[in-house]
Write a structure and sequence with these properties.
alpha/beta, 8 strands, globular, about 35% helix
C-alpha cells in the first residue's frame, strides 16, 4: 500500500482484527454483486469504500424515479441510465481506485458460471426467486460463499451460504427450488426505505469479513429484521441431505 492508501484505509488498519494484512487482502479481492438496486446500492458503496479491489455489478434494469426513495447509489440526474453504470459512477466518486466491471443483463445460469468462478464472494441483491436459485447453484458448483439478502415492506433477512463447508446449508436447503413461493415486488407492496440500507450494509459487512478473514459469518443462521419494532430474530439453518443442489457437494 502507498501513503494515500494507508491514509484512506487507516480506520480499518487500526482495527486489530483487520490491520494492514487484512486490508491488503481486501485490496486484492474480487466480489460479485447481483442486483444494483435497493440492496446492491449500499453493498456496492461499502465494498468500494472499504477498498475491495475489484467489483463486478450485474443488473439489467435502468434507473427510474421510483427507485430514488431507497436506491442510494442512484441520483435524479442519472434517471434513465443503466443501474450498473450509475452504480459504477457512485463507487468511483467515493473510491476511484476500485476496478468496477459491469454487465447490463439478466444473471442467467451460463453467465453466472463464468462470473461466480472468478469471484471470491458473491452478494445476491436480486429481487426474484429464479435469479436467487441460479446464483446459489453457481456458488455451490464453484464453492464460493454467498451472502444473500432480501427486503420487502418492513421485513428483511440475510444469511451466508458457504459452499466451502460441507456441513453448511445452501440457499436451496432453506428455500427449495420447487417450492411455490409467491413473488412479491416493491411496486405492489412497497418497502421501507432504510430497511434495504440496513440489509445491504449487513451484506457488505458479511462479505468484508469473509474476504478479510475476520470473525464468524452468518453461515448456518438466518438473521431477520422487523423494522417496525427494530427487533432482530435468528433461525438456525441445517443442510438438507436430499437437497437437489448441494446433496452431492461433499462427494
Amino acid at each position: 500500500m502507498d501513503d494515500a492508501q494507508l491514509l484512506r484505509y487507516s480506520r480499518h488498519i487500526l482495527l486489530d482484527e483487520i490491520g494492514i494484512e487484512g486490508q491488503r487482502r481486501l485490496l486484492a479481492s474480487h466480489a460479485l454483486i447481483v442486483g444494483a438496486g435497493g440492496l446492491g446500492s449500499p453493498a456496492a458503496l461499502y465494498l468500494g469504500s472499504a477498498g475491495v479491489g475489484r467489483l463486478t455489478l450485474v443488473d439489467d434494469d435502468r434507473v427510474d424515479l421510483t427507485n430514488l426513495q431507497r436506491q442510494i447509489a442512484h441520483t435524479t440526474a442519472r434517471v434513465g441510465q443503466p443501474k450498473v453504470e450509475s452504480a459504477r459512477a457512485a463507487v468511483a466518486a467515493i473510491n476511484p481506485d476500485v476496478k468496477v466491471e459491469v454487465h447490463q443483463r439478466r444473471a442467467d445460469a451460463e453467465a453466472l458460471d463464468t462470473w461466480v468462478r472468478d469471484a471470491e464472494v458473491v452478494l445476491d441483491c436480486s429481487d426474484n426467486f429464479a435469479t436467487r436459485q441460479a446464483v446459489n447453484a453457481a456458488c455451490v458448483r464453484h464453492r464460493v460463499p454467498l451472502v444473500a439478502g432480501a427486503a420487502i415492506r418492513f421485513d428483511g433477512q440475510i444469511s451466508v451460504y458457504d459452499a466451502r463447508d460441507p456441513a453448511c446449508p445452501c440457499y436451496a436447503c432453506v428455500f427449495p427450488p420447487e417450492a411455490a413461493f409467491d413473488e412479491v415486488a416493491c411496486a405492489t407492496l412497497g418497502v421501507f426505505a432504510p430497511l434495504v440500507g440496513i440489509i445491504g450494509a449487513m451484506q457488505a459487512a458479511e462479505a468484508l469479513k469473509l474476504l478479510a478473514g475476520v470473525g464468524s459469518s452468518l453461515a448456518g443462521r438466518l438473521q431477520m429484521v422487523d423494522a417496525r419494532s427494530m427487533q432482530l430474530s435468528e433461525m438456525r439453518l441445517v443442510r438438507q441431505p436430499d437437497c437437489p443442489v448441494c446433496a452431492q457437494r461433499a462427494a
